[in-house]
Amino acid sequence: MAEKIVRAGRKLGRIQPARLEKDYLLEQAAKQVGMDDFGDPWFHQPLDILLQSIRDEARLNAAGDFSAMLQFNQVLMHRLLSEYWYKRHPEILERTLKRPVVIVGPMRSGTTRLHRLLASDRRFSHMRSFETISPVPRLDFEEVLAGEREDFRPILAKRIMRVARLANPRTLSIHPTGPMEPEEELGLLVASMYGMKHEAQWHVPSYAAWCEASDATPAYAYMADQLRLIGWSQQASELRPWILKTPQHMLDLTALLNVFPDARLIFTHRDPQQVVGSAASLAWNQTIIYSDHADPHQVGQEWLRKSHLQVERMMRARETIPAERMIDVQYDDMDSDWRGTMERVYRFLELDMEPAVPAMEDYLERAKDLKRHPHRYSLEMFGLNAGEVRERMGDYINRFDVPMEKPIGSAAPKRAGGSR
């Protein structure tokens, strides 16, 4: 549907052709905001590489290049607005980010459930979904703080989610959410034009290779400043530790700990069959919106490779982290005894869990409504099989004694709006 709308708009002259050129994108963002300070220039190199990779490899359709231009425009405007707020309120960058609790696990390993359970505890700070979409307050935000105006960002997030649901109804069953739901900080890494979010929506292998070979510390430092800005906009106490999570951290634990040296780490583990199949399904259901050339077998191989790289880097990084700074949580344990598992997590965090239990129970009840349509997928959809995944991920399975389930069922992948 999105493809048809964009093509029709261009035919009528109401939607201009996309221009995925860095100088043009920078110029347009600066013109729209009326500012020209984009902050730390580190982002220029990943932006150059990402744009080249899109041109050479992504094979975007009309909806894809139109959406890409909008995404770049939004990120660049947010960078400009961030610098505005840092200059207007220098106290933002002085905010402390003490002892964050960071959930580290592969895609689809239960990180969202654990994150939302902890985020329901008011003793922690967390991002909300609308802040992932629009992390930076608009220029009228001081009127919002004064109670004179409503914050438009949750309204915008609701509209964007509605469009995403129309473009591919399966996307929000894979990751159910709402504007006010706790959400991960991957969008803050995207602000530096860095990270797996781009790989999960576009076929950009050259860009992926560059990210995997780069020191991500500058992107994490920028993310930390964005968290300070969000904490200020929430008017949250600096004494409340942040709850963070995104699968990107599996690849970048060294950079994460360079920026957050006192972080406490919760590692989640799940049967790799489920991790790889579900990650491939998530990427597939986004990629087919933006390209008419997505290949499910190619997607399967890429996310098997990526999942293996994640656990390999995570295991290597853990060798230098003190044991008392981390804890391991099995996905199956959360399924069978969420309360007992969370009690163990709270002992690790040296907190009494009981004050948070009513809010956790409320979240679990609300989650039933969020996930009315289960996420269905299989390895066979993506040209994979259980033996291949187990062989590739054997070291990880053995090291963390990950329970293995029956092979997940097979079905043929379907493109949005019809068969492939």
TrEMBL record:
InterPro entries in the record: P-loop_NTPase, Stf3_sulfotransferase
GO molecular function: transferase activity
UniProt keyword list: Transferase
Gene3D superfamilies recorded: P-loop containing nucleotide triphosphate hydrolases
Protein's UniProt keywords contain Ribosomal protein: no
The keyword Transferase is assigned to this record: yes
Descriptive protein name: Sulfotransferase
Species whose genome carries this gene: Parerythrobacter jejuensis
Native organism taxonomy: Bacteria, Pseudomonadati, Pseudomonadota, Alphaproteobacteria, Sphingomonadales
